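Regression test case RT-17, inverse folding.

Input:
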């Protein structure tokens, strides 16, 4: 774990250096992108450290609550989930395809603002994949 920690810390130092460099040249869009990447990386790093130290793999409670809220909304909007297991799998596949498209759009985004919009859309679709998979799991019980 020590080597992994050092690599993580080195990456954070590189991001700090980039932020400093971009702030000197008043490149706000690049500075914003670096800050965003650093925030997301720090969240991921903290979660990985917790999991490595405790041996427990956790889900962010806010993420889990978002999925549970989306399950409740989906059940209200569509009380009947699927007509068969095959139909349920096709619904999961459809949502997964929509998520893949949003990730592709995020990767190919031509600006930080567009990338952030795509990230929000990807989070939305990822929640739909989780909801659909959970509903399929319930259907298969």
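Golden output:
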């Amino acid at each position: 774990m020590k080597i992994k920690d050092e690599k993580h810390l080195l990456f954070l130092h590189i991001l700090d250096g980039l932020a400093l460099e971009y702030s000197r040249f008043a490149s706000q869009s690049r500075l914003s992108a670096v800050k965003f990447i650093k925030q997301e990386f720090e969240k991921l790093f903290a979660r990985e450290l917790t999991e490595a130290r405790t041996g427990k793999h956790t889900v962010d409670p806010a993420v889990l609550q978002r999925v549970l809220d989306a399950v409740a909304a989906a059940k209200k909007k569509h009380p009947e989930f699927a007509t068969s297991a095959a139909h349920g799998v096709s619904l999961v596949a459809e949502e997964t395809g929509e998520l893949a498209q949003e990730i592709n759009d995020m990767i190919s985004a031509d600006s930080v603002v567009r990338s952030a919009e795509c990230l929000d859309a990807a989070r939305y679709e990822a929640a739909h994949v989780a909801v659909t998979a959970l509903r399929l799991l319930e259907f298969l019980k």
